[in-house]
Amino acid sequence: MCSYNGETFVAEQLDSIERQSHHAWTLVVSDDGSKDGTLAIFNQYADRWGSDRLSVVSGPQKGFVANFLSLTCRTDIQADYFAWCDQDDIWDDEKLQVAVDWLRS
């Protein structure tokens, strides 16, 4: 997930990720220099979920395209699959499971 000043919506998105029926996921957030309460919200969820489930890194602060690209190019993220989201998305509870099932078929 990439974020920038998303405090209005980001908790709803995080809640929708937490409700996923597919439980084998981790969330890496690239925050692009938020000046509102976005980072505090991420920290609350990281405290609840644990740092193995949610980590926040600093984005390049050059806009959303550069932010997503910087996250895509990180070599320290180990994953079989990636599911991109914006800070104001709300995922269906089956989103990840449907995607993983399709990719495995």
Automatic annotation (TrEMBL):
Matches recorded under PANTHER family: GLYCOSYLTRANSFERASE, UDP-GLCNAC:BETAGAL BETA-1,3-N-ACETYLGLUCOSAMINYLTRANSFERASE-LIKE PROTEIN 1
SUPFAM superfamilies per record: Nucleotide-diphospho-sugar transferases
Keywords: Cell inner membrane, Cell membrane, Membrane
Keyword Ribosomal protein: no
Superkingdom field: Bacteria
The Glycosyltransferase 2-like domain, residue ranges: 1-103
Entry protein name: Glycosyltransferase
Keyword Cell membrane attached: yes
InterPro entries: Glyco_trans_2-like, Nucleotide-diphossugar_trans
Annotated GO MF terms: hexosyltransferase activity
